[in-house]
Amino acid sequence: MTTIIASKEGILADDKLSGEHYGGPVQVIKVTLLDDGSLLAGAGNWAQIAVLIAYLNAELGEVSVSDLSTSLDESVAVRVMPGGEMMYYDHILIPYPVEDEVVFLGSGAPYAMTAMHLGKSAEAAILIASELDENTGTSCTFYPVPEKPKDETSDTTERPYPSAD
Predict the structure, then answer these.
(1) What CA–CA distances, in Å, run from 78 to 47, 86, 94?
(2) Which residue of 14, 81, 103, 153 has the fewest C-beta atoms within 10 A of its own C-beta?
(3) Alpha-carbon distance 137 to 140, whole Å?
(4) Is position 124 within any domain?
């Protein structure tokens, strides 16, 4: 699996290592920028996370949630929206709003959570997790949350006449 720490500022992922696949680890990108500008990070079976990405990007056409939920039973994901709102996904595919400041995912999550509870930075927590969890690599990549797009419906242009208020 992996170790992922997500917050309203972005997602810190340990590496690109995915567990054993036919005799050796496979390199995959664990954080994806979705079409709507949000970031998605997943832990578990990466093929299942890829299905979730396609579902969220509306690339699967008309697919029922019940059809997808059985294929996502070994994975979890966190989505950080522009502006910092976080959503948690499990096999049910219904996004759960996250109220916590930080979300930990993956097999190294308990180690990273403990390290941060003891005052370590997120980067240090990932490195500690890599020492204690054989499925967590030693490199960290930070993916900042894209800025929230400006509301295109609000019109802030100056008018040549006074407003009605």
Answers:
(1) 16, 7, 12
(2) 153
(3) 8
(4) no
Q: Is residue 51 part of a domain?
A: yes
Average pLDDT over the chain reads 77
What tokens appear for 131 in the block?
Answer: 């020492």
Burial of 88 (0-12, 13-18, 19+ CB in 10 A): middle
Q: Any idea what DSSP says for residue 62?
A: S
Q: What is the pLDDT of residues 12-57, one digit of tens each?
A: 876 555 555 555 556 666 788 998 899 999 888 777 888 888 888 8
φ, ψ of residue 17 in degrees (nearest 5): -85, 130
Q: Residue 17: how many CA atoms within 13 Å on its side-chain side?
A: 21
Task: Count the domains in the chain.
Answer: 1
Phi and psi based region of residue 131 (left: phi greater than 0; alpha: psi -120 to 50; beta: remaining): alpha
**Per-residue pLDDT at 150:** 64
pLDDT tens for each residue of 4-20: 889 988 888 765 555 55
| pLDDT over 50 at 164, yes or no | no
Q: List pLDDT tens digits, range 123-155.
A: 889 889 888 988 777 777 888 887 876 665 544
Task: Say if 19 falls within a structural domain.
Answer: yes
Both structure tokens of 96: 């759960």
